[in-house]
Each structure stands twice: as C-alpha cells, then as structure tokens.
Design a protein that fits this description.
6 strands; 7 helices; Rossmann fold; 189 residues
C-alpha cells in the first residue's frame, strides 16, 4: 500500500499515515508549483528550495517558507518518502478526470492525484500496488475553481475534459427534458 498526501500530516500523526506506517508503507509527499520542498536527491537528502509563494489553485498549500519545514522533512525521511510536483494544469486535469468517476475533489487533493498519476507514469507506483490518496477537503469548498474549469474560463488553461454548465429555467420539466436530451446524446442506445 502506498500513501499519497501531505508529509506534515503524516509527521504529525494523521491516522492514515499511522496505518500505512504499520504496514511498512513508503509515504509519498506531493508538491506544487512554488511549494517549499522541491527536490529529493538520490542519496536520500532533501534539499528544501525556500522561495516566495506563488499563486496556485491549491491555495492552502501556497507556502513559500513554512515554519514547519523540519517536521515535513523528518516525516519524509521516516516514511522513506519522495517528493513530486504538480503544475497548475496537472492539478486541474487530475481533479476533472477524478470528477468523471464520481468524485468531486478539491484542488489540494488534485495535487496528490496528479502526483499519483506521475508516479504511475514513472513506474514508481507499479501495477498491483495498493494506493491511498488522502483527500483534504471537498470540491464544494472550491466551486469557483470547478465552474471556471468546466466553463473553460480558468486562466491559462484549456481543459481536457470540460463538462460545460447548461443554463436552464428553474422548472422541473425543463431540467428533466434537458437531462434526458443530454443522456440520449452522450449515451446513444
């Protein structure tokens, strides 16, 4: 089992991290454009790149020089972790692709999902590995992000899988008829 999430949460005793640690599971940290931990050398030493925080869709982790960097580094070492970064477009697309499966993720979870996708692509996560991604919030807390993605107005991004909103009058019949038309168009018999 592999755990994808926030190294500091693991270092501070997140219940899933404790469970994974008991299973002897490597812990994978996720990073983001402008994040505080950006390089993990092959000899195992972490090189924190402290920089001014830049705006990101994952606003809660928009941290340039966190006060708890040593705890995060300690957690990465304890769990034999690695660091992976995600660009803004990778975050948005990871959320959108997950949403198509019935999830409704926040952009912070999008970072972990994007990191998971990259680790699978690199062969770090292999077929048959069990993976747990910690979701730190719900997509409903980030409605503006979701609406902008699907209405194709998210700055600097051309969505891969938009699901554009359909404006309808607030009448049952109008909503029902539009849904039936969309279902028939998307899933022909």
């Amino acid at each position: 089992m592999l755990l994808i999430g926030d190294s500091l949460a693991a270092g501070l005793g997140h219940p899933m991290a404790k469970l994974a640690a008991r299973c002897g599971t490597p812990f994978y940290e996720h990073g983001v454009v402008g994040a505080h931990v950006t390089e993990w050398r092959t000899d195992g030493w972490l090189l924190p790149q402290l920089a001014a925080a830049r705006p990101t869709l994952a606003s809660a982790i928009q941290i340039g020089n966190p006060v708890s960097i040593e705890k995060a580094i300690d957690a990465l070492r304890r769990y034999d972790g690695i660091v992976e970064q995600a660009s803004e477009s990778e975050i948005a697309e990871a959320c959108a692709h997950a949403d198509r499966t019935g999830l409704f993720n926040c952009p912070h979870t999008g970072v972990a999902l994007a990191a998971t996708r990259k680790l699978v692509g690199a062969g770090t996560i292999r077929k048959g590995d069990r993976v747990v991604v910690i979701s730190t919030a719900h997509g409903l807390k980030f409605v503006d992000f979701k609406v902008k993605y699907h209405s194709m107005t998210l700055e600097g991004l051309v969505p891969e899988v938009p699901n554009p909103p359909i404006e309808l009058p607030a009448r049952y019949e109008a909503v029902r008829d539009a849904m039936l038309r969309e279902i028939d168009a998307r899933f022909p018999r």
